Amino acid sequence: MTLLEVPVADTRLALDPPPARSRRGYRLLGYAALLVAAAAILVPFYWMLMSSLKSNNDVYTIPVQWLPDPVVWKNYVDIWQKSDLTTWLKNTLILSVAVTFLQVFTGSFAAYGFAKVRFPGRNVLFLAYIGTLAVPWQSYMIPQFILFSKLHLSDTLWSIIALQAFGAFGVFLMKQYYESIPDELLDAARIDGMSEYGIYRRIMLPLSVPALASLTLLTLVTTWNDYMGPLIYLRSRDLWTIQIGLKTFVNTYNAEYALIMTGSVLSVLPIAIIFLLGQRYFVEGIASTGLKG
């Protein structure tokens, strides 16, 4: 072996992949880190669920009682009797469905124009629209409230619907997904005589189910958990949402810890079920957004 052959051999050794045992060790460390992170996220929800099945005296016992003994199912009956939970959930559901439908429709329709229709000033208009994401809502909250009051929309559910029916984030998300759809497919449809509305309805929407599902879940969760909007615009008790109602319930029954946890579980449960049912489309939509086809 000559001196010139030594560096080549060393380079080959350095470029060899790590042994299988080393890769398995790294993988186990990654799984362990994910397990710890998942536990840190899920433990508070588990404690909330278990606390909703305890008596008040057992909620904050030391050491922590991880399993209720006995199980107090009566909390899920008392919460309906001591609060106006039916009205809160009904109002929240109405707002969430209406806002989600409008945001998905307007966001996907506007995104089609920005992504697939050429017109003068398209890029400038899109950048200006997306730039509104950088403007905090608190900066124009008061003028907006004055405007809605003069339009007699304050203290109505229409105020929240009008406030959140349009969103720049939805347009941005859908535009990124639309750009992954080949333009040749749309050009062929135009040659066949299909209108832009027909292309949007018959081609773009069926091909964009993952992105539509992602936008639906994100908008639904945001609207369901919204606190500031209903706090400012909905003053009548019969218009309160679940977040406003739970806040007043906590103020009234601040010593009823088990009932507070029960209300929290009922407020989280619908969103958790919807997310679990649609998580496959959500992950697919987020992962494929922005990929060029």
Question: What is the compact description of this entry?
Answer:
Helices cover 72% and strands 0% of the residues. With 293 residues, the chain is mostly helical.
CATH class type of the largest domain: Mainly Alpha
Q: Which structural class should the secondary elements be placed in? A: mainly alpha
What is the total domain count? 2
- The CATH superfamily of the largest domain is known as MetI-like
CATH topology of the largest domain: MetI-like fold
Biggest sheet, in brief? none
- Rg result: 26 Å
Second-tier CATH architecture of the largest domain: Orthogonal Bundle
**Which strand-content bin applies to the residues?**
under 5%
> Quick one: how many beta strands?
0
Envelope shape: globular
pLDDT averaged over residues: 84
What features would you describe in this structure?
GO terms for molecular function: ATP binding. The protein has two domains: 77 residues, no CATH class; 211 residues, MetI-like fold (Orthogonal Bundle), CATH 1.10.3720. The chain contains 15 helices and no strands. The protein has 293 residues and is mainly α.
